[in-house]
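SEQUENCE-TO-STRUCTURE ENTRY
===========================
Question of interest: how does this chain fold, as expressed in backbone structure tokens?
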Amino acid sequence: MDNEQEAVKNSIFNHHFGSLRGHWKQVASLLVCYDVIAVNLSYFLALWLRFDCRFNSITPEYITSWQRFIPIYSIFCLFIFRQTRLYKSLWKYASYTELVYLIIATLITGLFHAGGITLLFMRMPISYYLMGPVLQFLAMVSIRFSYRFIILLRTRRRTENEKGRVMVIGAGNAGQSIIRDIKRAKEVNDWVYCVIDDDPNKWGALSRVCPSGASSAVRSLRTRLSS
């Protein structure tokens, strides 16, 4: 039974998380494109605001310096964002940890931008150095945490009949921990339909624990997932 449980767990993981892995790769690719645009546009907006939102009033040398620094700053930002796990986090469950990563990444890239563009090209207005990182941070936070906000709104609107049914394999400590997490998680709107375990001592001791038919149920589930 242990081997069957392990096999079905692997089948469930590959079936469910295999598609998720491809999905998150697409999300990460879109985030990369968004970040390249956002980090550079943020500093342009800082420059634009500095000159009272009048593009014609901006000193041409400032525009030229900003444009020439775009490739350097973009590459550095993507490197820092990758190191701070901004492309590996599950933003559906974004929390305080991800917010800290965003703050750290913004501070590092902001200091680099201030020093890099000044040393390589020219000194920019003070407000450019101050407002650029702030606008960049707001742009990055909004796109990442908006996804979590939308998911929370959708979850609250779902009715009881729309809940997904979950089968937990194993009624031991790990199984009980999974059941508790499912019940506590606000983002998950599923409920435990049954628990499969081959230990006779647990039959009847816990609600929804399947007894001797567990082996056939596991084989049936494995067949369905592999088809």
The helical segments are 2-50, 60-83, 96-120, 126-157, 173-184, 214-226.
